[in-house]
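Appendix C: a fully annotated inverse folding record. The material below is reproduced so that readers can follow the format used throughout the book. The structure is listed first as tokens, followed by the designed sequence.
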């Protein structure tokens, strides 16, 4: 009677699957005539082994080939412990593989599992993208948004600290602003925004006559109407307008006035204004004079229009109206003037 044994399953070892067995009887293998190939599921009978139960026996040996996956799905990886596909564990992500052939020396990453960066973690398993990895905590704004520039002492932030969450591969998202609202600088330097960035600039700035240092812009600006600005050197660290004074007694002055002597009265010509002052500045030439109700005289200079009318001037800078007068048979225009000193 022939021995009929069904090769239903072979011995399993970690990370491999048996596919064939061999018999040491000479016959069938074209590559090695001394080896008989017996396929999985074959019957151990005479037709397969070429030997009956009364013969000396046959030695069988398993032949193993690496297991393959095509593909490894996203969210899964090949486990080093089981040799099977497993759900991607916490604190890692598994983007999937197009195909994978088992190798016991492969790293986790080669098997489809990538650990989150140091300090990052996940809340769940089966993650497919690095954005599932995150870290969070409360950080000092000086750490979260550091800033430096020459001559700086310290940085002023909207908040001292912020609670931030950062997803791997992305910028941190914070629950409050770490916006820089200002800086402090070394002595002799002042904080100023240049092209949107805070910087320390030389503390002193010089404004020419007719301009003042604006606390708002930290720059020299034209002296506004009804004020006078003598010009000079000013500190950028002062928290006030510098180099500007108001005309007294409700007197008026034009834009860019440089002296209190530019404060006076206004003679309106339509929508334009001629500014007159209390001092007669050019005694060698005629002047336009108005006497107020209190008997006080106010002056404005005359300018001869010239043979080709090349010296015609409007009543003030930016005006469109001209005031023409005749004196001793010669035509003049009246215009606003600014004090030029003694």
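Designed amino acids, in order:
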């Amino acid at each position: 009677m022939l021995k009929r044994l069904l090769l239903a399953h072979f011995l399993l070892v970690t990370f491999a699957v048996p596919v064939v067995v061999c018999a040491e009887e000479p016959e069938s293998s074209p590559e090695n005539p001394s080896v008989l190939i017996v396929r999985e599921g074959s019957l151990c009978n005479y037709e397969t082994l070429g030997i009956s139960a009364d013969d000396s026996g046959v030695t069988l040996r398993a032949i193993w080939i690496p297991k393959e996956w095509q593909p490894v799905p996203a969210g899964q990886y090949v486990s080093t412990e089981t040799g099977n596909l497993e759900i991607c564990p916490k604190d890692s992500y598994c983007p999937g593989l197009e195909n994978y052939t088992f190798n016991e020396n492969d790293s986790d990453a080669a098997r489809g599992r990538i650990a989150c960066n140091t300090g990052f973690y996940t809340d769940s398993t089966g993650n497919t993208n690095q954005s599932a990895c995150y870290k969070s905590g409360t950080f000092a704004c000086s750490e979260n948004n550091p800033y430096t520039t020459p001559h700086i002492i310290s940085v002023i932030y909207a908040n001292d600290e912020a609670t931030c969450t950062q997803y791997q591969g992305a910028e941190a998202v914070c629950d409050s602003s770490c916006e820089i609202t200002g800086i402090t600088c070394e002595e002799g330097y002042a904080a100023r925004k240049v092209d949107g960035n805070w910087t320390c600039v030389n503390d002193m700035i010089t404004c020419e006559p007719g301009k003042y240092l604006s606390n708002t812009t930290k720059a020299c600006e034209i002296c506004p109407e009804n004020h006078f600005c003598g010009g000079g050197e000013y500190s950028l660290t002062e928290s006030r307008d510098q180099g500007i004074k108001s005309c007294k007694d409700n007197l008026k002055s034009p834009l860019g006035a440089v002296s209190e002597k530019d404060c006076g009265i206004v003679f309106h010509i339509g929508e334009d204004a001629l500014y007159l002052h209390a001092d007669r500045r050019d005694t060698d030439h005629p002047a336009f004079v108005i006497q107020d109700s209190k008997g006080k005289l106010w002056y404005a200079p005359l300018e001869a229009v010239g043979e080709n009318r090349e010296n015609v001037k409007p009543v003030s800078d930016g005006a469109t109206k001209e005031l023409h007068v005749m004196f001793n048979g010669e035509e003049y225009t009246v215009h606003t003037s600014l004090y030029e000193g003694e």
